[in-house]
Structure formats: structure tokens, C-alpha cells
């Protein structure tokens, strides 16, 4: 049984790392960590990046152990253990990418406040950034379905 | 990207009236959000057709070649089975994540906030003003054209989903939650909207209309609201 | 030998059979009947959508139609079809005579039949489920679905899931322990690997759905607000639980079908598959990765983009193991001399359809595209390409490949080819159109649309295709019927395959092998074409029937070295009786007669007691002759018996359910609105500490009771100590449940804490029951120094009860004490 578990060890480790990232992310949003600045980044990104690096590091160590391990009863299972460790390591690197690429918390986590039109504050969670890309005229001219038969046929 | 996009739009107009147009079509974008996603679709479609051609081509040739020799694991599994999809997928994943990031409702100076409240089976819309003013409309959403609009999506009963295919992706209206969707209408016009999440017996008819106004007309809407 | 393994005569024989071939065939035929019902519903759906503004059925009926179509195809067709194929084929592939727990297979079948019948009958009474096959709350909650419709779904599907859990445990143990002598794990047929991985996924994948169904039924029946946002619940919790099951489900359906491809394709290409180890690596990767994808069904719920990114990445990664398999198969064809026989034709259909489904799947894994395509006909089309491509076509290939095995007759090629082309063309016409119309904005689950949408022609063509496909399936059924009644007798190994299921006379005898083979390579039949004759002449193991026992070999998990002789139980009505009592439990809940439910639960417990009691006959046999001068004990006298491993895997499944429950509790606490709750559990930890202390003390007793050198008197004494501790702990937990927790309907917190405590108390009670059982077995003289499995199982479940009680008390008392 332990030989079989070892054969999926790398993937199990990935599952643990993935769960930790997802769980920490939820907790961080709930506790408002994105609003706490630490140097150039916020607390959430710092913690998540740390968790990501630790996960990758742990799986790398596991992989190293598997490649050095003494052969077991069944060569195929040893090979699977090495393979799943390496694949789990790769998967951990890839699935953690959003930690550095994506907006941490949705507006869902931001209490919605009534403001004036055109005045949206940079409240906790959202980063202040330049406006969204301005409209490009191509779309509308070519394809906006104007004066559609509304709403009689439509509704 | 624009040339590519123009070419596609051209192809679409050529294909036929029934090609890409239509009141709820995702392939006839009326704003940058929907446009970026439509581009993503065309890129993925081209890639998918190429990959499909490659695999079925290899499959068909297997019957013609009939070489009966030993197969190379290095070629078939490591090369075609692992290296090839991994490369394609990582590139695509990064592309998708970057576009998704750009479509996030980030704070901006000229954003208009409008509340969209769903219930079985109609939508109510209310511009968000500082002093609580605002004329509520049922079934018709008024927005300014050429400015980012944040739709604050909520529900009073079951889960619905706010969707104006020509302007942006969809966002669920979930009881107890407040969601935010950024959309931009490039041009004044009328756009179809629909409830995308199954919401009971009146789901099919749970549609609405979006009217994008030019600045003058938008001023009129605001004046009427106050 | 036939007299020993066959079902008895008459109705009693038909109801009491536990033989795997009987049960497997029943699963397959019943699943096909449900498939036909689901197809009819699909045609009604397509008829309604064929033209704009259609008045064929109203929205009320239409909602029932598509809900039932999805539910039937997922729960009553796909999963049971897999179970049927596994039950029928696995022992034959592994060189065994039956599955590890034959009565459990029969019990599973009856649960499936009764649960499926409840679901389908509701359709005739017009109270079928109508909230969509994923039953999103709050639409499926009491205020918005006041009728019985949602209850039918929750009860019927959970009843059917009982059989899936039973099958999962059984497949795991059978593949790992019931292989022919010498069948090492690294020479196992790929199909067995696929089923092993599928069973593991079922073990972990189904508990979240079962938990979700229990919670939703509790909310509907007793107003416990797990999903009500006004009282601390969250509708999204349901989506998490559902898709935590729902996404692995897709791979649970795909993997066995891929196993069929990996089995049939090399035979059709007249070669061996390339990359045996790589394919195993790929399916192991799929098994785990597929549990990290579920949120991609929830990309539009407003979950933050970073979290979506994690799941988008995992969803993209999961395409790589699929790519490995696809190219391993194509490479195999290149290496071989492929013959375009009927099974190969279906496999080619599988390639075309499944590759398209996989490509659209990668598209949908990209978050921005998903925002547009989600909940449109594009997604419906995608999932049909994946499931019909990834399941129905391989199953058709498997059906035409293995039908000679079932019937002993030759297929009729022409009719089969016509059926294939009708299905293939009809399918692609229907669902290519649905991709298009989805991109043009047609949402899922609408019953009608105006002409102005521009969807008319696509829908009309799609409906047309759906009917062509129906003709194809009708022709397939006709082909099978003709083959059964009119086909010519086939020779022993019509496809010249190499796996063990062809080393027997056709149609397969009830005992599979007159004597069990010794296996030393991947394709025993290719190595020794006379193997079937030799086995029939009794040249293998266990060739001599004795005492009318049903015997098969139990072997080492990895090396396949024979370890013990498994004595399997004979035909009995017990599985049927237990399933009827289980049904009574579910129906009394469905009917709202809650007072009757505990009565039936006790009846199930009594049946289970009887069941376990009759598993072994309690005598010591010592070493018995197994043939070829091999002397082995019977399984009850050996460590690591099938019962032991069955218990281990049951705990894995149960533990997953518990872990999901704890996840739900943590999720609500961090995400849902209305927390912290107005009232917490009483903070006093004394009762909990005492309960834990006595249970922990008893686990020391449990260790002594299971010690190798312990005498019977000692075992009995320690078991009594365990019983005492369990009674004390149970009383304390019940007291806590009755006095310390706020009313469950007041807040999701109170409801969840209540469920946690009831879960712990239930498991302490279960451990008590098992300890009592072990004591009764000792008193009856059924336990000896060699036969200790009853005591070991009791100790195992005691340990589990201790663990969950500790987690429940920590998770509830610590926050209350800190507050």
C-alpha cells in the first residue's frame, strides 16, 4: 500500500499545496489583508507568495528524495513515484502563477459603498490603477446591433 | 491585434447575415471587454482547428502508412503527448490570465456605478448617486457610451446571471452577495441582455434591454433621474 | 463447479443471485433502459427547441425534462454502466471467479434499481425534479421549490450513490487483492488500472455530493439554514460541494471508457499498446488533478480573479495527461497493422468527438472566454462532446467488442456500421449547431426563444440531428437483439486478443475459470493459445471443488504472490432485504414520515449484523491445498483479508465526507455573511474532555485487544472496556447535542455544529455496535488466534470515532472558549 501511495506522492503533495494556496487566499480576503501594505506589496501577496515558494520547495525536496531512493519491489512503482514527484513539482509552479499575476480579492470582498457617479474610491482590496482601456471605435461601428426590435419581440 | 480583429470582422460580415451577428451574439462585440474575449475566441478557434487537423491527420495517416514498426515513446509520448500540449497550454494560460486581469473592475475616475437587482423574473436598474436619488427602471438599463460602467449585481431571491453578450461576460446575481461587472459600450445603441443562470419557470423570458447614450442624451437621463 | 456458482432455480434464484456476471449484466441492461428513457427526454427537449415560440410543452414540463435528462444520464446511465462493466469484466480480466464482496454488488444493484425507479416514476406523476441537474440553491430550497420535486432528486440520487460507494470499495479491493497468482501490479491489464483509479476517485469524489444532499435535505425538511444567506448560510456552499463532486465525476465517467479504448485499440491494431507506464502515470495525474478544477464551473460567481487563476491553471494542466493518452493511442495504431473492424470504427468516432470536446474544454478553462460562454448552449455542446465522445463511443466500441463474450455469438457487421454512421452524423449535427448557437448567445435551459434571435436554423438542424442519432441507437439495439437470437456461434477468441477474459468458453460460465491461471506476462492468452483448454481441464490453481465452497485466490497487492484462498458467500436474499429496508428509510424521509426513518435504520442495522455474521462460518481450517503443491490458509485466517481492506477504504470514503463537512464549516465561517453567529455553543469543555479522555483510553484497550499474542479472555476484557468507554462518550455527546447547541434553525452555525456533533455521536455508536459484534463473535466461538478480523475492524472504527470526536470538539469548543 505504501508503495502505491508513494507512486502518487507528488500529486498528493500538489493537492496539499494547492489547497493551502486556495484556503489562505480566502482567509486573506476575509481578513482584509490586501489593505495592509508591506513595502511594495500587500500582506496577502506576501503570505501567498511565501506559501507558494514553500510548497514548491517542499515538493522539490520530495522529488529529490524520490530520485535518490533505493529501489523497491516493483520498478514501475518507483518510476511512477519519481515521475509523479516531478510532475507535481511542475504543476505546483504553474498553478501558483496567479499569485503574482492576478488581482487578489474581488469586489465581492469589498463592502459596496454608495458614492457619486464617477467617484470610485480605492477602498481596501482594489488597487488604484489607471482607467480601463478606452473604447475602440471599431467594434461599435461594425457590429453594434442598433435599434433592434425591442422590447416587444425581444422580451 | 486590431488588424487581426478587423480581418475577422470582415470574414464575419462576409460569412452571412446569420454568421456572427444577432441580438445576443458574443461574436459581435460592442465594447472592448467583449472585443478582447471575442479575439481570444478567434485565436483559440484557429489553434483548435490546427490541433484537430494535426491529430486527426496523424490518425488517418496511421491507416494509410501501415508501417508496422516499433513506435517511439520519445516521439509520441514525450514529444507529442507532453511537450506539445504543455507549451501551447502555458502560452494560452498566460494570455487568458492577462486578459482576465485587464477586464477586472479597477478603480477609475470616470466610472459610472449602476445597481442591477434581479428577481423572479425581471431586472431592476438604479444608478448609484451620492444623495440616494436615482430613477429606478425595470427591464431597461441606461448607460453612457464610451465610459466604463460598473454594474453592481445583486439578487433578491434565487441565483440569476447578468449578461449583455455584446458588452462583457456575465456575472451571477447571488442572494447575500454583491458582485461587480465592468462593461463599456463603445457606441451609443441598444444591446440585448438576458438572464443566463437558470432561475425557474420564467427563466426564458427574463431578458432586458441596455441603451447606451451619447453624452447629451446621458445628461438628459441623469436630469430625469434627479 | 457450475452448480456451486450458478444462481438457484426460479424467482428465488433470480432475486438471490450474487454472481458477478449476473449482477454485471443486470447493471448494464438496466443502465441501457435508463439511457433510452434519457434519450426520449432529449428528443422531447429538441422537439420543443426546434422552432421559435414552440408550444409543444410548457416551461413547467420542460424544466422537468432537462433536469431529468441530465440526472438520468449522469447518475442512472453512466456510473451504473461503468459499475456493470467492471463487475462483469474485472474478475475475468484478473483471473478470478468473482468480485471481493459479491453480496455488496447485489445490494448495490438493488439500491440502484430502487433509487432509479423513484426518480423515473416521479416523471409520470409530474413531480420530477425541475431545478436543473445541479440543483442550485436557493432555487432548489423550500421557498422556491415548495413541492416534493427537489426531495425526489436528493433522495433518489443519494440512494443510487449508495451503490456507487459500494462499487468503489469493491473494485478497489478486487483489483488489489483478487488477482490471479503471479499477476504482478506492473503487468495488470490497463483496464484494471483504469478501474482502480476510477474507484479511488469515486471513493473521494462522491462523498461531497452525498454530504451536500444530506445538508440540503436537512434544510428542506427541518429548515436548517446551511444555504440561506439571511441566516448565515451561503448558496455558493452548495455549488462548491456539488462541483467538488461534479468535476471529478466527468473523469470518473471518462477513465473507464478510456480503459476500454486502451484495451480494444491495441487488439484492433494487432500490436501492444505503447507507453504502458506513461499511461498509468497519466491516469494517476488525472485522478488527483481533477479534484483541483471544480471552481471552473463557478467562474462567473464573483470569486476573485486570483482564485479563478489557480483553477484555470489546474484546468489547463489536466489536458496534458489526456494528451499523453491520445498520442499513445495514435502511436499504437502507427506501430500496428490496424484493421477497420466495427469496434475500431467506434474508436475513430471517439477520437474525433472527444478531441473536439477536449479542445473546447481548454477554451472554457480560460477565464475570460468562460465569462461569455458559461451557461450557454456552447457549454451544453462541449459537455456532450466530452461525455458522448469520452464515454458513449468507447462504450459502443466495448459493446461490439465484448458482445461475443456475453452471447457467444458473432456480430453482424453491416447493421453495426449503419448504426455507427447514424449516431456519428446525428451527434455532430446536433452539437456542432449547439456550439454555434451558444456563441450567438442562446442560454442553457430556456424553453423558448423569439425568431429575432437568429437561432432558428441552428436549432432546427440540431433537432434534426438528434432524431438521426436516435435512429442510430435504435439500430444498435436491433443489432444487439439480432446477434443474441440469430447470430452464428463464435469461436473462442474472435478478435485474437491476449487478455485473460478470452481464456474461457463462450458465453462465459458462471465460475469463469474451472481452474485459475498462473500469469507471468501482459498477455497470457497470446503467450499460450491453449490456455483456455488447459484451465478448463483443471491444470491451474483451485481446480478441485470442495465442500461446495466458492473459492478464488487472494494475492499480494504488488507481486501477485498467492496469500490466501478467498471463500466467497453464496446466493442469498439478504442483499435484497437490506436494500428494501434502506429504501424504506429513504421513502419515509421522502414522504415526510420522519418517525418511520429510525425504524428502518434499525432494520438496516439488523440486516447488516446478520450479513456480517454469515460472512464466515467460524471454523479453523489451517492450510488447504490450492493446487500445484501450494498450501494456503482461508482468508479469514490470514492478515490483510478483503474484509480488512474493505473497512480501510470505507474509512477513507467516510473520512472524505467528514473532511468536506469541516470544509463547509470553515467556508461558512470565513466567507458567508451574518457571521460571527449571534449565539455559540456552550463554552464549557468539561464534557468534551471527559468523552475524549475515555475514548483515548479505550483506544489503548483496542490496541491490546488486537495484539497478536492476546488470549481470547484478554481480548474479551479489553473489548468490554472499549464498550464502557463508548457508552460514556456517547452519553456525553448526546447530552452536549441536546443542551449546549443553539436551535439549529436559528443560524447556519448552529445547524453545522449540530451536524458535526451528530456525525461524531453516530460514529461512536457505530464503534459501539462493532465492538458489541466482536464480543458476540467471541462468545459464539468464531474468533481464534488466527481469526481476529472482527476485533481488528472494531478497533479500526473505534480509532476513527476517536479522531472525528477530537476534531469536532476542537473545531467547535475552541472558538466558543475564545469568544
Automatic annotation (TrEMBL), chain A:
Keywords: Membrane, Transmembrane, Transmembrane helix. The chain crosses the membrane at residues 12-34, 46-65, 85-105. It comes from the Bacteria. This is Uncharacterized protein. It comes from Polymorphobacter multimanifer.
Amino acid at each position: 500500500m505504501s508503495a502505491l501511495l508513494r507512486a502518487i506522492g507528488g500529486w498528493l503533495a500538489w493537492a496539499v499545496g494547492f489547497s493551502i494556496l486556495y484556503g489562505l487566499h480566502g482567509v486573506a480576503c476575509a481578513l482584509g489583508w490586501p489593505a495592509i501594505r508591506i513595502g511594495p506589496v500587500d500582506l496577502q501577496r506576501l503570505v501567498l507568495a511565501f506559501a507558494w515558494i514553500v510548497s514548491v520547495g517542499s515538493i522539490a525536496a520530495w522529488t529529490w528524495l524520490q530520485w535518490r531512493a533505493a529501489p523497491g519491489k516493483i520498478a514501475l512503482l518507483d518510476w511512477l513515484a519519481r515521475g509523479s514527484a516531478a510532475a507535481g513539482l511542475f504543476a505546483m509552479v504553474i498553478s501558483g502563477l496567479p499569485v503574482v499575476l492576478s488581482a487578489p480579492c474581488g469586489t465581492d470582498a469589498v463592502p459596496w459603498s454608495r458614492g457619486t457617479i464617477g467617484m470610485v474610491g480605492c477602498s481596501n482590496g482594489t488597487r488604484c490603477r489607471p482607467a480601463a482601456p478606452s473604447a475602440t471605435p471599431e467594434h461599435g461601428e461594425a457590429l453594434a446591433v442598433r435599434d433592434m426590435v425591442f422590447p416587444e419581440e425581444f422580451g | 491585434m486590431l488588424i487581426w480583429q478587423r480581418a475577422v470582422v470582415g470574414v464575419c460580415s462576409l460569412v452571412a447575415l446569420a454568421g456572427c451577428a444577432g441580438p445576443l451574439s458574443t461574436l459581435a462585440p460592442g465594447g472592448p471587454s467583449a472585443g478582447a474575449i471575442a479575439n481570444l475566441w478567434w485565436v483559440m478557434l484557429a489553434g483548435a482547428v490546427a490541433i484537430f487537423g494535426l491529430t486527426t491527420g496523424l490518425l488517418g495517416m496511421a491507416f494509410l502508412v501501415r508501417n508496422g514498426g516499433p513506435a517511439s515513446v520519445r516521439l509520441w509520448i514525450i514529444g507529442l503527448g507532453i511537450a506539445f500540449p504543455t507549451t501551447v497550454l502555458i502560452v494560452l494560460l498566460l494570455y487568458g490570465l492577462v486578459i482576465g486581469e485587464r477586464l477586472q473592475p479597477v478603480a477609475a475616475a470616470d466610472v459610472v456605478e449602476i445597481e442591477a437587482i434581479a428577481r423572479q423574473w425581471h431586472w431592476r436598474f438604479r444608478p448609484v448617486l451620492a444623495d440616494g436619488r436615482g430613477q429606478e427602471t425595470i427591464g431597461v438599463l441606461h448607460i453612457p457610451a464610451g465610459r466604463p460602467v460598473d454594474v453592481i449585481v445583486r439578487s433578491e431571491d434565487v441565483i440569476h446571471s447578468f449578461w449583455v453578450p455584446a458588452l462583457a461576460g456575465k456575472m451571477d446575481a447571488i442572494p447575500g452577495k454583491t458582485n461587480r461587472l465592468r462593461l463599456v459600450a463603445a457606441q451609443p445603441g441598444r444591446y440585448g441582455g438576458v438572464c443566463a443562470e437558470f432561475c425557474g419557470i420564467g427563466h426564458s423570458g427574463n431578458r432586458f434591454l441596455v441603451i447606451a447614450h451619447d453624452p447629451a442624451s446621458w445628461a438628459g437621463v441623469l436630469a430625469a433621474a434627479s | 463447479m457450475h452448480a456451486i456458482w450458478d444462481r438457484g432455480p426460479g424467482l428465488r434464484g433470480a432475486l438471490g443471485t450474487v454472481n458477478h456476471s449476473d449482477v454485471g449484466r443486470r447493471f448494464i441492461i438496466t443502465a441501457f433502459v435508463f439511457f433510452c428513457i434519457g434519450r426520449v427526454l432529449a428528443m422531447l427537449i429538441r422537439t420543443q427547441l426546434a422552432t421559435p415560440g414552440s408550444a409543444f410543452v410548457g416551461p413547467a414540463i420542460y424544466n422537468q425534462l432537462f433536469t431529468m435528462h441530465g440526472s438520468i444520464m449522469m447518475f442512472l446511465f453512466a456510473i451504473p454502466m461503468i459499475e456493470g462493466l467492471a463487475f462483469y469484466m474485472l474478475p475475468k480480466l484478473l483471473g478470478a471467479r468473482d468480485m471481493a464482496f459479491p453480496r455488496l454488488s447485489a445490494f448495490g444493484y438493488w439500491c440502484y434499481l430502487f433509487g432509479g425507479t423513484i426518480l423515473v416514476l416521479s416523471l409520470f406523476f409530474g413531480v420530477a425534479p425541475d431545478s436543473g441537474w445541479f440543483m442550485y440553491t436557493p432555487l432548489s430550497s423550500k421557498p422556491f421549490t415548495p413541492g416534493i420535486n427537489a426531495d425526489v432528486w436528493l433522495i433518489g440520487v443519494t440512494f443510487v450513490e449508495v451503490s456507487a460507494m459500494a462499487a468503489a470499495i469493491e473494485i478497489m479491493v478486487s483489483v488489489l487483492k483478487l488477482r490471479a497468482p503471479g499477476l504482478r501490479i506492473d503487468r495488470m491489464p490497463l483496464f484494471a488500472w483504469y478501474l482502480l483509479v476510477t474507484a479511488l476517485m469515486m471513493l473521494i469524489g462522491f462523498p461531497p455530493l452525498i454530504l451536500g444532499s444530506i445538508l440540503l435535505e436537512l434544510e428542506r425538511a427541518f429548515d436548517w439554514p446551511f444555504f440561506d444567506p439571511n441566516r448565515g448560510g451561503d448558496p455558493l456552499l452548495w455549488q462548491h460541494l456539488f462541483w467538488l463532486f461534479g468535476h471529478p465525476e466527468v473523469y470518473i465517467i471518462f477513465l473507464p471508457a478510456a480503459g476500454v479504448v486502451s484495451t480494444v485499440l491495441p487488439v484492433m491494431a494487432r500490436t501492444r499498446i505503447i507507453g504502458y507506464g506513461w499511461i498509468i502515470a497519466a491516469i494517476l495525474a488525472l485522478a488527483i488533478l481533477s479534484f483541483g478544477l471544480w471552481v471552473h464551473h463557478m467562474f462567473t460567481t464573483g470569486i476573485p480573479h486570483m482564485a479563478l487563476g489557480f483553477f484555470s491553471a489546474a484546468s489547463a494542466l489536466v489536458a496534458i495527461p489526456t494528451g499523453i493518452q491520445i498520442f499513445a493511442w495514435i502511436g499504437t495504431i502507427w506501430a500496428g497493422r490496424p484493421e477497420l473492424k466495427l469496434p475500431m470504427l467506434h474508436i475513430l468516432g471517439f477520437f474525433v468527438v472527444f478531441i473536439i470536446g477536449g479542445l473546447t474544454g481548454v477554451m472554457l478553462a480560460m477565464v475570460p472566454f468562460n465569462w461569455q460562454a458559461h451557461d450557454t448552449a456552447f457549454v451544453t455542446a462541449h459537455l456532450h462532446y466530452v461525455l458522448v465522445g469520452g464515454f458513449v463511443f468507447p462504450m459502443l466500441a466495448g459493446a461490439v467488442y465484448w458482445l461475443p463474450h456475453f452471447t457467444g455469438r458473432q456480430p453482424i457487421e453491416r447493421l453495426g456500421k449503419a448504426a455507427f454512421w447514424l449516431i456519428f452524423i446525428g451527434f455532430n449535427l446536433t452539437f456542432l449547431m449547439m456550439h454555434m448557437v451558444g456563441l450567438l448567445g442562446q442560454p442553457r435551459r430556456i424553453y423558448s426563444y423569439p425568431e429575432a434571435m437568429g437561432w432558428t436554423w441552428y436549432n432546427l438542424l440540431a433537432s434534426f440531428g438528434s432524431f438521426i442519432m436516435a435512429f442510430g441507437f435504435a439500430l444498435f439495439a436491433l443489432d444487439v437483439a439480432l446477434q443474441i437470437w440469430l447470430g452464428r456461434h463464435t469461436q473462442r477468441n474472435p478478435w485474437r486478443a491476449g487478455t485473460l477474459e478470452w481464456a474461457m468458453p463462450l458465453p462465459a460460465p458462471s465460475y469463469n475459470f474451472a481452474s485459475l491461471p498462473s500469469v507471468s506476462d501482459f498477455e497470457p492468452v497470446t503467450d499460450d493459445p491453449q490456455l483456455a483448454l488447459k484451465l478448463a481441464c483443471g491444470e491451474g490453481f483451485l481446480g478441485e471443488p470442495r465442500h461446495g465452497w466458492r473459492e478464488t485466490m487472494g494475492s499480494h497487492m504488488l507481486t501477485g504472490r498467492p496469500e490466501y484462498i478467498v471463500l466467497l458467500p453464496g446466493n442469498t436474499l439478504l442483499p435484497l432485504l437490506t436494500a428494501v429496508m434502506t429504501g424504506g428509510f429513504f421513502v419515509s424521509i421522502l414522504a415526510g414520515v420522519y418517525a418511520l426513518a429510525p425504524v428502518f435504520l434499525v432494520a438496516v442495522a439488523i440486516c447488516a449484523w446478520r450479513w456480517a455474521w454469515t460472512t464466515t462460518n467460524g471454523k479453523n481450517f489451517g492450510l488447504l491445498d490450492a493446487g500445484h503443491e501450494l498450501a494456503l490458509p482461508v482468508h479469514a485466517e490470514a492478515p490483510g483479508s478483503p474484509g480488512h481492506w474493505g473497512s480501510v477504504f470505507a474509512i477513507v470514503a467516510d473520512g472524505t465526507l467528514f473532511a468536506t463537512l469541516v470544509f463547509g464549516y470553515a467556508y461558512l465561517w470565513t466567507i458567508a455573511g451574518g457571521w460571527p453567529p449571534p449565539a455559540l455553543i456552550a463554552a464549557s469543555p468539561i464534557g468534551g474532555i471527559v468523552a475524549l479522555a475515555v475514548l483515548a483510553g479505550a483506544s489503548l484497550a483496542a490496541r491490546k485487544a488486537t495484539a497478536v499474542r492476546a488470549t481470547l479472555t484478554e481480548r474479551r476484557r479489553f473489548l468490554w472496556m472499549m464498550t464502557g468507554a463508548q457508552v460514556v462518550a456517547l452519553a456525553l455527546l448526546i447530552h452536549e447535542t441536546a443542551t449546549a447547541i443553539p436551535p439549529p434553525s436559528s443560524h447556519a452555525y448552529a445547524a453545522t455544529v449540530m451536524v458535526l456533533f451528530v456525525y461524531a455521536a453516530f460514529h461512536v455508536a457505530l464503534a459501539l455496535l462493532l465492538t458489541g459484534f466482536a464480543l458476540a463473535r467471541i462468545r459464539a466461538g468464531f474468533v481464534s488466534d488466527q481469526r481476529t478480523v472482527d476485533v481488528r475492524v472494531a478497533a479500526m472504527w473505534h480509532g476513527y470515532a476517536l479522531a472525528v470526536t477530537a476534531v469536532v470538539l476542537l473545531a467547535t469548543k475552541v472558538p466558543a472558549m475564545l469568544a
